[in-house]
Each structure stands twice: as structure tokens, then as C-alpha cells.
Design a protein that fits this description.
Blueprint: H1 2-21, H2 28-36, H3 39-42, E1 45-49, E2 55-59, H4 63-69, E3 75-81, E4 87-93, H5 96-106, E5 114-117, H6 123-132, E6 137-141, H7 144-156, E7 162-165, E8 178-187, H8 192-197, E9 198-209, E10 215-222, E11 226-231, E12 263-267, H9 277-283, E13 291-299, E14 302-310, E15 315-319, E16 328-333, H10 338-351, E17 360-365, E18 370-374, E19 382-385
Parallel strand pairs: 5-6, 5-8, 6-7, 8-9
Antiparallel strand pairs: 1-2, 3-4, 9-10, 10-11, 11-17, 12-16, 13-14, 14-15, 15-16, 17-18, 18-19
Length: 387
């Protein structure tokens, strides 16, 4: 590891410069943390999914491993097997630019106590501990092995923040109150336990997602009776929070969809959910609580159908390729017309001028209500998320 111990610092400085050049790293103190905390200690191996769905591993002591660790890329660091035998991601090292963008947005100051939901590799906790001290950093993760490994790696570098195993939705009440809460996993709704554990005026930064792309990072301030704030202008996504220390159960229900059945319509809209994340979030009030996405049928040009399935039996299938008039065939069935609901909200969104994340905010109250609003919390336009 002699060459690694010499070469990582060169690479860390190069990464810091790259982040500075893009405007993400404009704080000398955070730059010092990036240059001083060795990311490779927290990522001794990573995995890459191949076109056939299989995973390949790149481990320590290879140039490819060290180069990748100090690139501005996310790295999958842990896999688990689902109930149907598939291997899925359960932990990753966040893209450094996103990590620093979130830390900057969190506005942590000297003396602030920070709770991190999702310890992962421990690298984010190391950056926080390097700048603000071990005594001010607390982190929790459902994965016992992840926490144990993160603790060992942090200790190897001389960092001793507080780490705990538990359901992140409960926070870490025994060490509250906190000045800041940062979640490195996505949640469909913001747990009120986090609001109870953050001081009034404190901030909570979390990725609120109703589906794979239906949502975004939102920065909420603790007010007397609510959490309230705006979505960050640039989209980002994290893995969904887990409630068990295991791979998430397989929820694919694409196989029960039969496009030859159901009501037939057409649409000019792109069915890919990442093409319209804002209206997909706004539409969630009228959609099934849990909405899955996948593909069905394959041709020489790729998937034939984009498929959405709800936990209530609703489904819709939209052809991926438009016809000569720019229209795509739609088939849908079940108690909720998924695509019809989305098209209605998409039309309302277009009528409002297609507002982006920078114009949207969120209010969360103790009774579990989540209201997305346009421009101002008490404005005329609002959408309630399912609770």
C-alpha cells in the first residue's frame, strides 16, 4: 500500500480542484477536508453493473480502483441478494460533488451538532468530523455491518463520531437536540421524529421521493409547528431508506401487466419518469401509494413498453417509440387511471409555466401532512402528498 499512501493525496488534491473549478467547492475549510480525508479508506472496493445485469468488482491495489475513488463519481460499495435472487445495491459512496453541494446547503457552523441518517461507508461523517469535531457528529444506519465497518475505518484515521445501528426514521433521540439533520437516503415522507429532534431554527436536508424520480432534495427549517422550506434547484437522487437490515423485497409487478388489455388512448408525452420529475411528484396525490416502474417487451430498438404499476392493482403501459405523428399508444387498467392522472397534472404544470424545483417548496406538519407549494407557502397553488 506504499504507492497508495503516496498517490492518494495527489489524487485528492486533483479532485478538490475539479470540484472548485465547477463551483461546488468554494469554501477553503471544506476544500481542506476533501484534501485531508482519504476517500479510498472508505471504499476499498466497488461494484459496476454490466450490460447483462451482472456485477463486477474492482478492489484495492489496482490503479483503476484508486483512480475511480478520486473521480467525481458515485460508487456502489455493498450489494445484497433479494428474495428473487437478484443482487441489488444497499450502500454506495455518494458522488463527491453532490456530497459537498449538500454539506454547503446545510449551512453547518462551528459548534453545530449534526445528525446523519444513513452512515454508509462513513466518508461523509469523516468530512463532518474533520471540520466540526467528533463530538458534534452523530450518524445512524439500519445496516449493522455497515456501521461496524464505518466505525473501524473512521477510527483508523483517528475519527470517533457517534455511530449507531437503527431505523433512521426514528432519528437518534438519545443524543438530541441537533442543529442539523442530513439524510443520505430518500424517504416518501419526512418523519416527524426528525422535527422533534432538531432545534427550532435548525435545518433538515432530505431527499423526498414518491418514486424513483418523483421528488428531490428539500431544505426544511424547523418552525414552531412545522418543517418548511424549498427544494434545491438541481435534481438529485438517493437509494430509498430501508426498514430492515436486508435487501429490499422484490416489488416488481410488471409481469402481471398485459398491454393487450385495458383502456386504450394515446399521448404525446415521454413515458420516462426522469423526463418530468416535477409533475410526477405533484401527481402523486392522486396515484397509488406505491408506484413501480419498469419495462416490458424488447425489440431491436430497446424496450417496447414503459410500465407503471400500483400496489392497488392499477397499471399502465406506454409505448416507448412514438408513431409518425409523435403519439404513443397507452393502455391502462385498474382502479386508478395512472397515466390519465399524470397527464392531467402535467397539463396543469404546463399551464403554470412548467415551474422547476427552484419555485417549489414543502411544508410538513406534526399530523403527517405534506403540502408542496408554488412560490410561497400560503400561495394559491398547492398539492398534498399521500401520508
Amino acid at each position: 500500500m506504499t504507492s497508495t499512501s503516496v498517490n492518494w493525496q495527489i489524487r485528492a488534491r486533483r479532485l478538490a480542484q475539479q470540484l472548485a473549478d465547477t463551483g461546488v467547492l468554494d469554501d477553503p475549510a471544506w476544500r481542506a477536508a476533501v484534501e485531508s480525508v482519504p476517500r479510498h479508506v472508505f471504499v476499498p472496493r466497488f461494484y459496476v453493473q454490466q450490460p447483462d445485469g451482472e456485477w463486477s468488482e474492482t478492489a484495492a491495489d489496482s490503479d483503476a480502483w484508486l483512480d475511480a475513488v478520486y473521480e467525481d463519481v458515485p460508487l456502489v460499495t455493498a450489494l445484497a441478494e433479494t428474495d428473487n435472487g437478484a443482487r441489488v445495491t444497499v450502500s454506495s459512496s455518494t458522488k463527491p460533488a453532490l456530497m459537498l453541494r449538500m454539506l454547503r446547503a446545510l449551512q453547518v457552523r462551528a459548534g453545530h451538532r449534526v445528525l446523519e441518517i444513513g452512515s454508509g461507508t462513513g466518508y461523509n461523517a469523516a468530512l463532518l468530523a474533520h471540520r466540526f469535531g467528533d463530538e458534534n457528529v452523530f450518524t445512524v444506519d439500519i445496516g449493522a455491518a455497515l456501521v461496524d465497518t464505518a466505525r473501524e475505518r473512521l477510527a483508523e484515521l483517528g475519527y470517533t463520531p457517534t455511530l449507531a445501528v437503527g431505523d433512521g426514521r426514528n432519528g437518534l433521540p438519545e443524543h438530541a437536540p441537533y442543529d442539523r439533520v442530513i439524510a443520505t437516503c430518500s424517504v416518501p415522507t419526512v418523519p416527524w421524529a426528525w422535527a422533534e429532534q432538531v432545534r427550532h431554527g435548525g435545518l433538515v436536508l432530505v431527499d423526498v421521493k414518491r418514486g424513483a424520480h418523483a421528488g428531490n432534495l428539500v431544505l426544511l427549517r424547523r418552525e414552531e409547528d412545522r418543517l418548511e422550506g424549498r427544494f434545491l434547484p438541481k435534481w438529485a437522487g438517493f437509494m430509498a431508506i430501508r426498514d430492515h437490515d436486508a435487501a429490499p423485497p422484490s416489488k416488481s409487478s410488471v409481469g402481471r401487466v398485459h398491454p393487450e388489455d385495458g383502456e386504450r388512448t394515446s399521448t404525446p408525452l415521454d413515458p420516462a419518469p426522469w423526463s418530468a420529475p416535477v409533475p410526477w411528484l405533484l401527481a402523486s396525490a392522486g396515484l397509488p401509494r406505491h408506484l413501480g416502474f419498469g419495462h416490458l417487451g424488447f425489440t431491436g430498438d430497446g424496450p417496447e413498453w414503459a410500465v407503471f404499476t400500483g400496489d392497488d392493482g392499477s397499471w399502465c403501459a406506454i409505448r416507448m417509440q412514438p408513431d409518425g405523428h409523435g403519439e404513443r399508444e397507452v393502455r391502462q387498467g385498474g382502479p386508478v387511471a395512472i397515466w390519465g392522472e399524470f397527464e392531467t397534472v402535467h397539463g396543469e404544470w404546463e399551464a403554470l409555466g412548467r415551474p422547476g424545483w427552484d419555485r417549489l417548496g414543502l411544508t410538513v406538519t406534526a399530523d403527517g401532512q405534506h403540502r408542496v407549494w408554488l412560490d410561497e407557502p400560503d400561495g394559491a397553488h398547492g398539492w398534498s402528498l399521500p401520508t
